[in-house]
């Protein structure tokens, strides 16, 4: 019997409830496919932060880095200012473990209600590869002095003429600024991952940028995309401005196979993608470092108002669990979980409120575990 | 008879064709409501740039600044690298004239095909106020040396401890970076415009940001929003993360009344909004400086592949023309144009291909002009 040890961070709000169902289903898959998971719980999240002042310490991160996969519920709590937990735990982990791929399948499962007219599961089946460690997520910014919009106007106009110098003073309240950066290495590796993925799918990679306006950062992105594309002459490529791609996700989702996107735009378009595939309750994600520690999570938040009510849909988390065990090497078990999710949805007997049912979170977990076990 | 002089920049691709229909309809409205427009053509766009090297000169901008409204077709051409014309003409004008409001109505007209299930014209009727002169559109960025993703990681982690210094060297190819800034004055004025607008609508303003991650720039945005909101206690407010709002535009567009957004996020969500209201062929926009020179345009691009084919939908441009004459003071005529657009759509006899018809661009212009004239 193969043994795995998997750290789990249930987190805040509904996190513990949905993670319980994910574990239940993975345990069932282990029983059927002959592996055993020992779960090690980590306490990080709002309560732990309020009690101890620790978001996630270097020591905890070091401990977690011994594992190849982490199972994460959700992070976020109304008692704490927006961003503190998300940056201090979720983004800290993504950066610390250098999880440079955020893999988000956009797949409409058979039997799921889609908000779009005339679209079927055949039309909606692609994957977004979101760069996950750079761009505007690096957390560099501040407040600066001097700079009414008139000064900005001067700065802007001077661009047409010459180089400029930027003099940033802190401790002033006249301007808020933010800096994004992408590196050659950081961009190329996520492109390479995307092209490799496309080689095993429909050989089509679509890049997302806004190179016509944010030309410095995303002109660079485009160049690196072209450089990697050259090495894959059999893969079809195209560019999409981020504004336009939100239209195509709604109008022509069937166009896409693999979509590679900078971090921030990826954040935006994968929420839209989640809606197109039937809602956040169904959208899983993996933060992947192929050579290191990866982390799997539903892409939705901690939904504090549903906490402890046994009400929300655990499918995103269960699906993320399937992605995780696939990463661990249990491909057959992972497929069985996804197939069990599909059966549960097709049967439409045990579903949470968001899918029109009245079952509880744990009922859905029970049902999917039952199907996995072939009962 | 009131006389107006309006500069018009037909621009590239389909620009001249759609602008011709916009002028036709405004001329008809003038005939009916007793005003006369003298149109002054400006040549700016791809051909003019290729012939003369001028994008738009300070002299041209100065000349245009004598007017209170400009009518713009579309800018963009495949022969020229992405961004050159858009930044050199369109964004240059938005910045030069300090058109700090980009007003984009998202309204599903009766009889228009909506890609969303179960949504009717009653559900989709809101306005996006996009800040139009700051944020990541200021054009500041470059290439820098030093900075593999590991360095970025260090930078990121150091944030949890202390202030940092950023040493940017140019002429290197290792990093692409971009800087966005918003100012107190620039943010407050667009907030004030939004609240004033909401006072005359359904007294609800929704703010868009990503303050949980781009905390420096959008934390500032939130503070200014709160400061202006305090002066309007009768207006309901809420915050939306930009990722989440793409979901609500699809799932619950009926929630919104006035949506105020930073420039870049506004670019993204208004394209999505255009799709939700039936497609880019139907989405108008106004770049507004309430005390200066405003500029009205369809929000779609120059669609080079349709150039000269008398094929594309002129409704977005005609609608933008209605917004323009309303700004000039001809409210009754503006209402008559919008109502004529609605009649044309309801009758469904003279429509372009995107709406399922087979009429040409000029047929639609003729039909709407006829309706305006009450013929
Ligand atoms: C919670 C937040 C920091 C996070 C992000 O912006 O990446 C979330 O929206 C996501 O998409 O995983
Ligand atoms: C053409 C481009 C520069 C422009 C923008 O990004 O603002 C366009 O997308 C728009 O929305 O008007």
UniProtKB/TrEMBL annotation, chains A, B:
Q: Which GO terms describe its molecular function?
A: magnesium ion binding; NAD binding; oxidoreductase activity, acting on the CH-OH group of donors, NAD or NADP as acceptor
Keyword presence, ATP-binding? no
Isopropylmalate dehydrogenase-like domain: residues covered: 5-368
Gene3D superfamilies, alphabetized: Isopropylmalate Dehydrogenase
The domain of life for this entry's organism is Archaea
Q: Which UniProt keywords apply?
A: Manganese, Metal-binding, NAD, Oxidoreductase
InterPro entries documented for this protein: ICDH/IPMDH, IsoCit/isopropylmalate_DH_CS, IsoPropMal-DH-like_dom
Q: Which cofactor does it need?
A: Mn(2+); Mg(2+)
Which PANTHER family does this entry report, sorted A to Z?
D-MALATE DEHYDROGENASE [DECARBOXYLATING] (PTHR43275:SF1)
Name of protein:
Isocitrate/isopropylmalate dehydrogenase family protein
Q: Which organism is it from?
A: Methanolobus zinderi
